[in-house]
Each structure stands twice: as structure tokens, then as C-alpha cells.
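Justification of computing resources. Each target in the renewal requires a structure prediction run like the one illustrated here; the chain below, 201 residues long, is used simply to show the kind of job we budget for.
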Amino acid sequence: MILAFDGSSVDGSAYTDVVDLADRSPGWLDDMVSAWSTYGLAVFAVLMAVAWWRARRVSATAAVIALAVPLVVVAGYGVDAALKLVAREARPCQSLHVATLEACPAPGDWSFPSNHAAIAAAAAVALWFVSRRLGAVAAVAACAMAVSRVWVGAHYPHDVAAGVVVGALVAVGPMAALRRHPDSPAGWITGTRLRPLLAAS
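Resulting C-alpha cells:
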């Protein structure tokens, strides 16, 4: 038997309210939210690609900052995944035994913090350092991702809130430091075969 923390005492009632609302909602709305919850992270990948494409037309240092975004997102995911192994919180669908839009994961697939929320938040914060406009779009998308993960029944509200905090905190430090000192990595990359990544031909 896998020993797991039961997070239902934190905000289980709020979770069931959202899941009940999803159950009473029109099918087309549930389908849209489920699709976003499942495939929405691809939007952040597109935003990162757009940010890099535009930055390389500005300057090598701007391109370096844009190239750092996916690395920061991977770091955010890594930290979040490590925290999952420490917290070992059972999924709400396992603890509360409710019917959800998303199939209930198997025991051992921990809930706290939310990986989706952490990835989305890390991308939004990191993109903000590249482009305020893209960062704002990503922030709205990150909020939608966090809400969707509760809507489909995959996470408690505190799971997604913690995921957002983790992703944001992991992203803000490295991106702020890199924006203050982008010249050194830009100079190193310029001297390698990766130079085309920094400037439009």
C-alpha cells in the first residue's frame, strides 16, 4: 500500500464545488476545458518559439534571454516534480472518490504541486523578461491552465496555486540575473556553431 497525504482537508470542499459545476456545465464547455487542460502546454511552446524568433532580430543578447526561457521552464518542472516526491499527496479523485472529466490517475501519481501549473507559470514569468506582450498572453494562458486542472478534477485548488508559485519563483531569479548580465553567454555562443541561434540571417 502506498502511503500518501490526503489534501482534502485543505480545500476539498472548494474542489468538489468546482467538479460539481463542471458536471452541470454544457458538454461543449467541458470539452473545451478538457482540451486546454490536455494540450494547452503546446501553446507555451509556440510562444517561446515566437519570442526567440523575434528576439534574434533585435540583438544577440535579446536572443540569449529568449533561449533561456525553455531552460527555465524545464528547471521549474524539475523542482515541481521533486516537491511532488516529498509531499506525496494523493490525487483528489482518489481521496474524495468523485467522478471527474479526466480519468483518475493511478496511486503514486502525486498531486501537489501541479506540474501543469508550474510549467505554465514558469513560461509566463520567463517570457515576461523577453516581451511584455507575450508575457501577458502567457500569464492569461497560465491562469486558464491552472483553473482547467481543477475543473477536470486532476488537482485541488491548493495544488495549482502552489504550482504557480513554484514555477514563478524558479523562473524569476535566473531570468532577472540573465537580463542584467546577458553579454557573457552571448559572447560564448557567438564563438560557437550555435551562432545562428542569436541572429537572423
